[in-house]
Input
Amino acid sequence: MVKNRYRKGMARPRSFDEDEVLRVARDQFWATGYAAARVDDIAAATGLGKGSLYGAFGDKHQLFLRTFDKYSAAMVEGVRRQLEGPDAGAYERLRAHVAAVADATASDVCRRGCLLAKGTAELSGQDPAVVATARRTFAAIEELIASCVAGAQRAGEIDPNADPGHLAGLLLAVLRGIEALGKGGSSPESLRAIAETAMAVLPRP
Amino acid sequence: MVKNRYRKGMARPRSFDEDEVLRVARDQFWATGYAAARVDDIAAATGLGKGSLYGAFGDKHQLFLRTFDKYSAAMVEGVRRQLEGPDAGAYERLRAHVAAVADATASDVCRRGCLLAKGTAELSGQDPAVVATARRTFAAIEELIASCVAGAQRAGEIDPNADPGHLAGLLLAVLRGIEALGKGGSSPESLRAIAETAMAVLPRP
DNA sequence: GTGGTTCTTGACTGACTAGTCCAGAACGTA
DNA sequence: TACGTTCTGGACTAGTCAGTCAAGAACCAC
Output
């Protein structure tokens, strides 16, 4: 991405950390959405001049996609950390994850929600790259949930006759629904109740 | 809202239908989101001059809230029509409704999704009026689902020991999740599978 | 040092946008 | 028909925004 090899006479090096700039830019897009975010604000927040920003990342759209992809990848990694593990604790990990999403959504005071959801809602109709990232991310998370469900089935905590893919799809929908309802102002208690009910209705052996 | 009583010498009447203008404006906001929608485009699409638009509806924000509230109210009415009725068919109405949401989301080619979800995702962090409308709308729909669940319980199609409020909350989350996943490019089949699985896991008597 | 390269800064541009304003149009009443 | 009122259309304003550019800064190899 960035050329670190110089031909002759090494040139002036970057004075900023690319990841840090992406984090700050992400927060700007996150707070206001893509269309309402201002490149001038991002430049000010990062302390960079606009020239550096454009030189390093291209235009506003490319910068957004970078932050969006990075956020989505980090999200998948976060889910992986919460769900992967031995069959023995699979059901409990699943339960804890669903509860954690509800808690995080409930305690999101500034109601900025999930950037993946926000970006997808705003841009999916106009930006195929956003749709592609969203689809990839949802598929990866669903796969992680399905693996965890299968582990819980092997451990005898979920009905082994159920289709783990179907249950994973349902749970993913519930998670995304909790996120959507949270942004709509649902109470913390009702979000937590949804998480508990979702686990309660899973078929036991 | 609109003054139709004139004091002396009746004045020039509106040459447009307010509902029709709101419909067109809604489609503009729906297609691009709030921030990216242009008042000039709305004026052009409605055929009105900007003066008339501002005179009748105030500014862009007020116009959006009008379309947003109207959309939300219509949505609640639509759900009511699908769910209200005698206990006998309650379960089937519920099943049909969940399936209908999945189908509608799956066949939304232009991926514009639900305006309530889109508007809430974009503006909930900055606009209390949007949050208020979203909360009210979600609460109304959840209430309708809860009534339908209770009917299905009385009809002996859902476990009467289950809490209808909890099941309604779960189903509402699934519906909003289907909508979110649909905008993320999930396949029609997987959306329909989620709808079926959600109904399948409801506790039977 | 000197040269060659890339990075930085912020003023600048051109396009676009929300909102205003006003001259004239369209009405019912007297 | 003349009047008072509200509606209409679109030109206009003031401000905002994404993106560019040029002059200089920082760096290493030689």
Residues 3, 6-15, 43, 48-52, 55-56 of chain B lie near DNA strand D (CB under 10 Å from a C1'). Chain B touches chain A through 50 residues (CB under 8 Å). Confidence is low (pLDDT under 50) at residues 1-6 of chain B. The CA atoms of residues 13 and 66 of chain B lie 21 Å apart.
